[in-house]
Amino acid sequence: IFLTWEWVFNWWQVYGQRKELCVLVLRGQNGDIIAIAPFYVRKKKVLKSFSTHEVRFLGTGEDVSPDYLDLIIMKDREDEAINAFIEYISRKDGWDILNLTDMLSTSISYAILEKAASDKGLIVKKNECATCPYIQIPSSWEEYISGLSKNMRYNVKRRIHNLEKNFKTRYFTWQDIEGLQNAMERLAFLHNKRWEEKSSIHSFSSKEYNAFHQAVAKEFVPKGWLQLSCLELDGEIVGILYDYRYKNKIYYYQGGFDPSFYKYSLGLVLRAYVIQKAIEDKIEEIDLLKGGYDHKYKWTESDRNTVNLMIGKDTIGSKFFVFDEFRKPQMKAAIKKALPNF
Question: Considering the entire predicted model, what is its pTM?
């Protein structure tokens, strides 16, 4: 879903300032589009003072961080397309480094890009990016919950029981298109309320982030791609999970909960309701996206990994970028390991 026009276009509308659009298109002899490389170029400071030209995937950067980015290529045309793109960019000026983040480690494009760039004599570096846990949805709630730990099974049942005993509880997915802006504002309010108490940096703190997700939600609704799962207690919405629903999968992007109900574990209860609905709707999977956090692994043992691929020209800017993004973190980790108390 993070490669759709709706995501990419709205990201560019909000975050495109001071960046150069660089969308590469490969066409066949009859003019049909075979592949698209959705890139942009930005100037980035490395080592605090040196400016380098970095190429990134459209739709990522600033305070937006999607997963599973890639080139968009017709099936079985990957080799042809990627070699054509690498041939083109190897001769093109105006860039130092391709910083291709958040690609699936199993991506066909990832493997071909790495080889094609190496064959062209370009600098190639790669590192792990993120772990993305996901829940495989079985045919029944009983089957699913029986696969959880004994402690988790007990917690889920107890938390749901306590909430439904003490409040008039309603779970629903938002359907009022005219009231969508209000629902998104409620999500931002609940998210901010929770994190402001912790004095932490949070997602909905910038006007750009709010504007982008308002625009994306509006675009996704008519296509059935938005799922705002709401938890209402005594007539007031106290929790929202902001999910995307695309090609029989659900992608968890963000959430907001009223911290005054902390002892009731609203997030746990709401996630249980979402899983139950996914089972009813015969959804294949709920992807919890980046972040191998403990609270995600309470629901699943399955995960997948994303990687970053850096492809550089033989320029000072490229070498400085690789050092800053790749070598320097390695050196810090090695020093920390050798001198843990230093």
Answer: 0.90
What is the per-residue pLDDT across 280-331, written as a single tens digit (0 to 9) for each? 999 999 999 999 999 999 999 999 999 999 999 988 888 888 877 765 555 5
- 65-95 residue pLDDT tens: 999 999 999 999 999 999 999 999 999 999 9
Contact 144, 275 (CB under 8 A): yes
Six token digits for residue 279: 């089972």
- Here the tokens at position 119 are 């064959």
> Computed from CA positions of residues 13, 16, 18, 19, in that sequence, does the dihedral angle turn out positive or negative?
negative
Fill in the amino acid letter for 67: D
**Secondary structure class of 64 (helix, strand, coil):** strand
Measured from the Cβ of residue 218, the count of other Cβ atoms closer than 10 Å reads 16
The tokens describing 266, both together, are 């609203």
Strands (E) in the chain, as ranges, are 20-27, 33-46, 50-57, 72-73, 97-104, 123-136, 169-173, 226-233, 236-246, 249-257, 285-287, 302-312
Bridge-partner residues for 242, per DSSP?
228, 254
Closest CA to 71 of 285, 311, 313: 311
